[in-house]
Amino acid sequence: MDTQRTGPRARTGAVEPGAGRSRGRDVPPATVARLPGYVRVLRSLSQDGVVTTSSEELAAGAGVTPAQLRKDLSFLGSYGRRGVGYDVVHLSEQISVALGLTTQRRVVIVGIGNLGHALASYSVFAERGFAVVGLIDADPAVVGTTVAGLVVQPSSALSDVVSAADATIGIIATPAAVAQDVCTALVAAGVVGILTFAPRALRVPPHVDLRAVDVASELQILAFHDHRRTGTGA
Amino acid sequence: MDTQRTGPRARTGAVEPGAGRSRGRDVPPATVARLPGYVRVLRSLSQDGVVTTSSEELAAGAGVTPAQLRKDLSFLGSYGRRGVGYDVVHLSEQISVALGLTTQRRVVIVGIGNLGHALASYSVFAERGFAVVGLIDADPAVVGTTVAGLVVQPSSALSDVVSAADATIGIIATPAAVAQDVCTALVAAGVVGILTFAPRALRVPPHVDLRAVDVASELQILAFHDHRRTGTGA
Fold it and tell me: Which UniProt keywords apply (chains A, B) (predicted)?
């Protein structure tokens, strides 16, 4: 095991803490996007008592091809062992370290409508290492109510909530019209990662990462394929 | 305008109704994924009374580079006119036709928990050409309740609801453990596009398109970048 640990670690320069872009290979964004899926499958296998897995089994569980999986894992220096496969716990740990999931990250949600409610109550966040530590809404009727064990705070408290909880990630679940203002306020308060559900493009400074989930656009992409296939509307 | 209409149309073979993959250029998936964003910005410009737009303005609104925008639109045969730019209404219409958004598509949502509630009530769906026509849940306490004007039906009614409403798209907002069974039932009922929020990989036959939104994975991707930058947990 010692060799296995040292080997991979020595090759993961690009994703080790403090490693600059100049060291080792960068992990491509598409690979980063698939890593959480591998962790999910590995944890599920581990819960079922599975000790080793093959690239075929892991790939099938994650919905990718075995070739894609092997390539993705090669960026982390994980190659498995011929005839043995991957050690489930070790690989899960290795990917989690690469993703920075070994420390809990604190999240603030802005916009406690239906979607904000759903996100505040989403148990999978906790399972994956995220703690929702603050809820913010602009509506006086919502402020002061308790959602998922947290009292909703007014917009004016955003900066204080972020600082007090040392939150590094903000989720925007507001209407599109106010999303940029909320985004700017979150950045000013110190968050470095933003996940937005608002259907509009947002601007963030270079040091802040932005991920956008646009549910209506996802449906439009499905409609495109349906349209191409059927050649008609419905 | 006639030339503009004929020109582009003649070049959009790959996305015209009934066009096979062999005709013209295929539209790359990444381009398809960006088209809804362009429609969103164009509609917003149109509402503000703007008649023509530049690739710079449109790109900025959609959060892409002008070069990316021009390349994406070239797949639809839309090149704009030097010194004039793009006709806002015409381009919006052209992309909408390519995406198949000119006909309303009917959507069934399975799993009416917090997230299903939020999706059922999401007004942006209607604005973008989608009608939620059916809600399904397995919980007897939820079945029979009215959400967003629709009465929630039991799982046993899934096939009937899909057929009766002629729904072509299904949204899965159930817990991960039952997502594959729901997916299989939706496919059997005749939907050809599925959008899933369940945090697990799903299998669909080749004629069905699957889009997956995994909110916790989005946070994990943000955590990865934070981790690389700070070199620490929090």
Answer: Cytoplasm, DNA-binding, NAD, Repressor, Transcription, Transcription regulation
Q: Where are the domains of chain B?
A: 2-99, 105-218
Q: From chain A, pick out residues whose CB is under 8 angstroms from the CB of B62.
A: 201
Q: Is A25 on the interface with B (CB under 8 A)?
A: no
Structure tokens at B28: 């790359």
- Size (chain A), residues: 234
B20 is in an annotated binding site: no
Q: Which fold has domain A2-99?
A: Arc Repressor Mutant, subunit A (1.10.10)
A214 secondary structure, DSSP code: -
Residues 161-220 in B contacting A (C-alpha not used; CB under 8 Å)? 166, 168-169, 192-195, 199-203, 207, 209, 211-220
Task: Test A233 with B61 for CB contact under 8 angstroms.
Answer: no
pLDDT tens for A130-181 read 999 999 999 999 999 999 999 999 999 999 999 999 999 999 999 999 999 9
Q: Strands B52-53, B86-87: parallel, antiparallel or unpaired by DSSP?
A: antiparallel
Determine, for residues B114 and A113 on separate chains, whether the beta-carbon distance falls below 8 Å.
no
Tell me if the domain spanning B105-218 has CATH number 3.40.50.720. yes
Instruction: Please tell me the distance from the alpha carbon of residue A59 to that of residue A38, in angstroms, as a whole number.
Output: 8
ipTM greater than 0.90: no
